[in-house]
Every structure is written in structure tokens, then in C-alpha cells.
Amino acid sequence: MSKAESTETTVEDGVIQSVSGPVVSARDLDARMNDVVYVGDEGLMGEVIEIEGNITTVQVYEETSGVGPGEPVENTGEPLSVDLGPGMLDAIYDGVQRPLDVLEGKMESPYLDRGVDAPGIDLEKEWEFEPTVEVGDEVGRGDVVGVVEETVTIDHKVMVPPDALEEGETTEVTAIEAGSFDVTETVAELANGTDVSMHQEWPVREARPTVEKRTPRQPLVSGQRILDGLFPIAKGGTAAIPGPFGSGKTVTQHQLAKYADADIIVYVGCGERGNEMTEVIEDFPELEDPANGNPLMARTSLIANTSNMPVAARESCIYTGITIAEYYRDMGYDVALMADSTSRWAEAMREISSRLEEMPGEEGYPAYLAARLAQFYERAGYFENVNGTEGSVSAIGAVSPPGGDFSEPVTQNTLRIVKTFWALDADLAERRHFPSINWNESYSLYKDQLDPWFEEHVEEDWAEKRQWAVDILDEETELQEIVQLVGKDALPDDQQLTLEVARYLREAYLQQNAFHPVDTFCPPEKTYLMLTTIETFHDEAFDALEAGVPVEDIVDTEAAPRINRIGVQEDYEEYIEDLKSAIADELRSLY
Amino acid sequence: MKEYQTITEISGPLVYAEVDEAIGYDEIVEIETAQGETLRGQVLESSEGVVAIQVFEGTSGIDQNASVRFLGETMKMPVTEDLLGRVLDGSGRPIDGGPEIVPEERQDIVGAAINPYSREYPEEFIETGVSAIDGMNTLVRGQKLPIFSSSGQPHSELAMQIARQASVPEEEGDDEEDEEGSEFAVIFGAMGITQEEANEFMEDFERTGALERSVVFMNLADDPAVERTVTPRMVLTTAEYLAFEKDYHVLVILTDMTNYCEALREIGAAREEVPGRRGYPGYMYTDLAQLYERAGRIEGREGSVTQIPILTMPGDDDTHPIPDLTGYITEGQIYVDPDLNSQGLQPPVNVLPSLSRLMDDGIGEGLTRADHADLKDQMFAAYAEGEDLRDLVNIVGREALSDLDNKYLDFADRFEAEFIDQGFDTNRDIEETLDLGWELVSMLPKDALNRIDEEFIEEYYHEDDSEQQVVESAD
Q1: In CA terms, which of A154, A525, B15, B415 is 20 to 30 Å from A334?
Q2: How many contacts (CB atoms, under 8 Å) link A and B?
């Protein structure tokens, strides 16, 4: 149930029978699965997860110290839902959509107290409503009846709730007016008796309806060379970033949240570090949206359920996030959702499951782990919405495999679903090669369907150039094995030169400094030009070698090392132009 | 308060008792044995009619006639500023023969989660005087940075060196008198370490006069294992009180987290829980997070809690669940390396796998020095390169390598001998550390310094050294 309707009638009270951490059993509670209940004298929020005879088992979203048998359990009769409406952007929530800034005020403490509730969106704030339909117009489910300016970047579209009408059915607008309204007030009346307000509720475990899932054909441009250049993700695509600790999962997720060309970002910090969320909260309002220069927070909704916050709320935060994402998708926006980390989510499931004494599957995870992961990622996609618009939800999940071992259940089950795999590598991270995405192990199954976009918008031979780079890197991997045995100088000249080219690919192209003001974001045009610069060096160098120039002299030129500085150039076009001719001139002067 | 003589089952550290009233989860229990001994415990599971109690001191001596009293409240730590200078046992009772502690407040030891919205992002550099940390893996106030070590390594010496030397540079200049002793506090939580190890710490505290600004909690190897599960919570409750209510900058040293986790496993096994990896409970991540996440800064409060937990990795294996889960929660880690230790390096820190996640925001202009980030990246890359080449040298010999490769090898050697191996008693300030770094990278030719901005190369690169190197290698 949603906290917006706080005067909910209670269905039937039960009595606590036992308490074990976040799992509470109650007697005589009349409840359905997934109903939200309030537990104990303090009214801690929980959700029904098992019913057996007269005993109902509840997972509680708050700390249960001091709660004992005999205390009451109240049922709200509603499933766990989120409040949808203007005000979700530029907000920071816990796992059950309680705004953390509001909680701080209500609790008057920097610590999270128990039993305090708050609606997900401000119910009193007034928004300037601008109708987009007139009295007499026919509207169907999901249709937009007006807009409010939610933030400087985003117009929030007010829609007819999808459950107000049957599929295909339409009805007439009988009243609608511009003006200032709060989210609970009616802004439009429909002939079938529906009052449309800016506020909707939706149960988090249920996907919002759509017409059809389409094949995504546009890339989610991230400004990260290795992603855009080698392993692109589509708008509406799915990706996994697995890696051991310290390999840069969170930095990669942050980079995507900052620079991906989505309209809306939903960032779910699931069971991760408090300080990292604080960094996002402090940085994002100051950072500029690369698309329009507005503050980044204006397009961002944050969900922070840090590792020390209650484990049951960690289980639900992923659902809260994707439901918010789907709501903006329904408005026709491209939404990108980052979940950091899905392993913590899976562990929360495992913890609850073991408290329920369910039969464990692999490594103690519940047998339904694979099904839950699939359900989550399937809610991503490029959709035709019920109101005829098109929108997308891209889901990017970090995975934290124990010991960095990708054969564990969460990584494996995720890989069976997602189509982009960015494998982080501890060895690369150790030598501070960032982003430490391993180019041999990673893949993207979207490459072919996205190439036409890159060829149209960047350059015709985008795909060929990428293949060239991949071939050189593959060759390097093979050569490195030999070098490990006999040393570099024992290789023939042409292979030594290939290693040199590959080194530029690794150091200049694949590495990118997230902390450098210019290098942190690399538009696809620059990504492309950088590759062609390295290719110029490759071609000129091999010409020189053929003309009899010793490989030592080719390697020891002055112009080529400037390739490493392309990343930090703001006026890269001119720099690259100069550099290409400098490389050619210098190498040609050798023969 | 009702007293029960209804114990039905005793198993390992757990006691089950029948009750006829509602008992809260996590409540504190006192058990009086027939011999008149009073033991303390905590409610682990509360059902109608029966509760499971975890007994801190162990269950020996308890029989079915023992009486059980429920205190009606969860575990509390009596806190006051007077705790500074005191030595307590693992449950927070004084063992130094000093006066009774008169608490100002009694705080719940479980500790509520800090609202991420109320946190302040840590970015204040702490100068530890250890180059391997300051230069390469900088510690900042409010960070949690564990030391990953293994048995027989000098991790304690490193922790003591940090506790002794840690300071924040800009404060030293003006108000040294004022700052010293009044602002900075060390809280030391020993969990299952030996008496000898504990003595080393105590002697060091006494020798350097650090004890008066410290609070020491001692749960030794022969103290009850279950008590270990409350010791760190006592420690952190005290730390939070001193930091956020009394404005101290608190450095918390917890040693050894491995013993803490073993105690968790013991309780889990006694409760017949479904075990997770290697028999550790499935909720160990959450449990550890509830400790480590108590580090940090809070907006509008002066103080900070910085944590340096020490853990010994069983078999020096960092994929073991304890270091693995820890690494996923903490903001980096410092590796103490057995090979470097056997080479006699002090401190034997292996910087390559070590990491400080908060470093990038804690260094640079105005904090340390503008060239710090670039220099550090270059040193990492050069040292990694040198390390790689060492394997190769074993096969093909130094002569088969190029000039540049030989320089990388020399760099790696000098980096260990000069930069890392500074001794446990040397306190280097950040300028010294960075200057030494430049001296080392200047062994490499300028155009090999691809991680450093040209401006800084201009300013700091030692031209002479490099020429000298060239002459030498030409000979």
C-alpha cells in the first residue's frame, strides 16, 4: 500500500508469535501474499511473504530489536506500492520509497529511526498544471492529459491511469483546467467517472502494462570509449558489470549515471556503501547534464538502501527503482536504471529465504533466484507504451561475485539474461588501468543492431574500425603469451610493431580517466577519431618498416606518444589533425 | 522483573527457556547459576512461550536449575568522556582497577544506520606519515580502511604506527597545543587476540603517552568467543558518542575481525542455521556492514569516525569470505605482504592490490599537492611494469631486456627499498613522500611518464637524475 493514503482502514489485526531478525511470524492475521502490514507497537513496515495455516510470515523493513510476541500486527490489505507523480526526480529514497531528506527532518536525527513513515512524493506541493487535451476529447488508458514542469530538464506528463479503462476503450474528457494543484487534487474528469490526479500508485512487484516490446536500435551513448567503441548497450538494453571489489564497478556505474544520454536516470544503491551514496548526493546537483547544462539531479532519482540498512528493504529497493523507471518510460522517455549491486539484492533474498528455512539451491541462494533475476531484467526494454508513445528502460546491474569468481550463481544467472557483459578485471585495476573492463572477456550482443546508428551518426566505417582494433588486441593477447616466455626482443620486427600499436590502443584508447574534467566524457566522434589516429600510426609505421627502417627507430619517435594525450584535449579535432600529419611526417622522414 | 527456572535446552553457547510473557528480540538476559555466578546473554529468537538466548560468557556451569532474568531492554553501552584513558573488558566493564565509570548516557549498542542524506562526504586527508599509505593509498577522515594481513605478519606494528603518527597537516601549524590530546582519540577494540599481542599494544600506548586519549576494549583469546560479537559494537558506540557528540576525531582500530567472524559462525552453527560459504552465516555481509558502516562523518557535526579494522586472511587468501565480504563494504584495503615482510621491508605493504577508494577526493591542490594524483598513477604503473618484468628476468636475464625495461626494474627495486621500506619509527610528511616519489620516477625518461601532466613534469622532474641514469646505462 502506499503511504500517501495514511488513513487506510485496517482489515484484521493479528498477534506476533515469534521474532527472528527481520522475519516475524504472526497468528490470526487475515492477509494475502505480499500485503503490507504494520508490525508491533511501533508500527514497523513489513510485507507478507508466507502464509501457512493460521501463521503468516512477514519480512520487516526496519530493525526489530525489542519487538516481542504478543504485540499487534495490522494489515493494510494492499500490496507494496510506490507513489508515482511529480517530485520523484531530484529526490533520494530508501528501499521502500521513503524520502531520506524528509525522514531526516521528521526524525530530527542523522540516524534512521524506526516506525517513521513518509509519502514518496510531497502531497502538499503545488504544481503548475498545463492541459494538453480539451473538454470533449477522447482519451484512452495511459493517455497524456497535461504536463507539469517537474524540473528544469523534465516535463512530467500527467497520464490517465492504465487501470482506469480497458484496453482499446476510450472515454470523453468532461472537465479539465489549467492551474496550480497539489498531487492529490483532480485535474481532469472523465466521462466514465475517473478522476485523474497527478498521483498514481502502482504495486512494485508488477510490471506496468505496455503494448509491445520492440527491438532496440539506438545506442545508449555513454561517453566511455571502451563501452561506446567496443561493447555498446542499446536504449532498452540490459547489461551486467561483474567484478571483484576494487575493480571499479561503482565508478563505472557513476560514469554511466553522469554521462549516458538517457532522459531519466534511476540510480539504485542496493546494499552498498553509505559514503558512495553521499558522494552522489553531493556531486550530482553540482554536475552538469552534458545534454543541456542543467544540474544532473534534475533528471535523476536516487534510491539508497545502504548495506547497514534493513535487509528486507534491500530486497524491495530494486523493484521500487524499476517501477519508477517504468512510469517515466510510459511518458515516452528513455530511462536508464543502474542497480549497484544486484549481488546484494540476491543476498537479501538468500538471507530472508534461510530465515524461512526454505530448501536452499546453489550456494545457499533460494531456488527462485534465476527466476527473480530474469523477471527484473525482463522489465527493461524498448517498448511501445499503452498511450502509443515509445519509451525505453535500460537496466545495468553491477554484480559482486565472491572472490571475483564469475562461476558463482548470481553472475551465471545474470549472464543468461543480459545481452551486454562488461567484465571487470582485478589485474587491470591493480595496474590502475581504468576502466578496468577486460576486452577479451566482455561482449555486446547489440553490436550488429546498433552499427547502422553509429554509421549514420558518426562515420560510415565505424564497424570496420572497431573490428580492426579488436583484431589488433586479439593478436596482442596471443603475442603476450610468447613475450612472457622469451621476451619482447625475441619477436620478429612486425610483431614488435603490432605490440606497440596495441599498447597505444590500451593506454590511450581503452583507458579513460574518470577524474579528468575533459577525459571523463568522450563523445563518439572523438572515440572514432582517436581510433583513426592510432590506425594512422599503424599504417605509417608498417610502411616505414617495409621500407627498411629498424623497429627501434619507429618506436622511438616523438610524435606518436602524443596519442596518449588525445583524451585530455578539449579541441581534439585540431589536435588530432596535427598529430596525424606529424606522425606521418616523422615516420616518412626515416626512409 | 520475573525470574524463570525454566531452562529446557542448553546447546553450545545457546540456552532455551520457557517464558509466559512477551520477551523482546535482542533483549538482555541475566542467568544466575546454582554456584551464584551471574552470566549475561541476549535474546536471539523470541517466540511465544520459548526464547533462545545466546550467553556471552559461555554456557558452562549452567544447569536446568539456573534462574533466568529478562532485563526488559536491549544492550546498552554507558558512555562518557571519562572513558578516555580507561581499559575495559569485551563487554565494557573496567578492568584497569580504576574508579567506577559514571555514565553520562547509556546508548544502544546496535546503533541505527546513518541516513545517507545526513552524511558528509569524507575528503579530509589524514597524514599517517607512512609513504605507502599517504602517497599511494591515502586515508581520509571518516573512511574505513582495513589492513588485510595473515598470521605472523607485522600488521599490529603498522596499525600502531598509524595510530601514533596520524594527524591532519593544516592543524599542526597554528594551534598545536590546543589540538593535541583534545581533538584526537583512539579506540582500540581487541577481539580474541593473545595476551602478548595485547601487551604490545598496551606498552606502545603507555610508552607514547597515547593511553590518555584512548579507550581500550579487551576481549582476549581465552575470553568467551560469544562476547566478541558485542565488543566491536561497544567500541563503535563509544566512538560515535565521542565523535558526534563530543567532537573528537576518533580512530578506531579493531583487531582481529577474523576472530569476530569465527564467533558469528559458532553461534550460527549452534542455532543450526543454513550455512553460507565455508560455513559462515548467510547474513555475515549484513552483519559486517552494520559494523563498518558506522565509520563516517555527519553533516553539522565536528567529529569523525575513521576505522582501521585488521583481519588475518586464513591461508593468505583474499577470496576467503571474511576478507572478501570486508573488501566489498570497506573503502579500500591495505595489503600486508608476507614476501615483502621476509625481505625485511618495514612496513611490508604491497601497494599494488591495496586501494583507497576515497583517495581521489582527498588529495590534490589544497589538500595534499596538485601533482599527487598523476604521480601516484605513474608510480603504480611503473611499479606494476617492473614487477611483471621481474618474472621475465628470471627466464631471459637482464641483458636480454631493453634499456627502458631495465629502468623499470631499477625503479621497482628502489621503490621498495626507499619508498616503502621506511621503518616503523619514521614519520614522513606528505611533501617528503611526494618528493621521494619524483626522485624515483625521474629514473624513467620523460616521455615514459604518460600519466603525468606536462606541467608537473616541467615543475618536478629531476633532469640531472635522468641524465645521470642515461650515462650510467650507456657505460
Answers
A1: A525
A2: 225
The answer on B92 and B65 residing in a single domain is: no
Average pLDDT, chain B: 87
B122 upstream amide cis, omega within 30 of 0: no
Is A580 annotated as belonging to a binding site? no
> Among B153, B301, B183, B313, which Cα is nearest to B251's?
B183
A485 and A372 share one domain: no
What is the domain extent for residue A46? 4-78
Residue A80 φ/ψ region, left for φ over 0, alpha for ψ in the -120 to 50 degree band, beta for the rest: beta
Q: For residue B370, what is the enclosing H or E element?
A: none
Q: Is residue B399 part of a domain?
A: yes
- What ipTM describes this predicted complex? 0.84
> Domain of B431?
372-474
Mean pLDDT by 10 residues, chain A (591 residues): 44 81 88 89 89 90 84 90 93 91 89 86 93 93 94 94 88 93 93 92 94 94 95 96 88 92 94 87 85 89 90 90 96 95 90 83 89 95 94 95 88 95 90 91 94 95 95 95 84 93 94 91 95 95 94 89 91 94 94 86
Specify whether A363 is located in the same domain as A326.
yes
Residue A454: inside a domain, yes or no?
A: no
d(CA B408, CA B331): 30
A274 closest CB neighbour out of B293, B327, B333: B293
List pLDDT tens digits, range A222-235: 999 999 999 999 99
CB of B390 less than 8 A from some CB of A: no
Residues B226 and B306 in one domain: yes
Taking CB atoms and an 8 Å cutoff, what residues of chain A touch B332?
246
Residue in chain B nearest A405 by alpha carbon: B319
Number of independent structural domains in chain A? 4
Q: Are residues B352 and B288 in the same domain?
A: yes
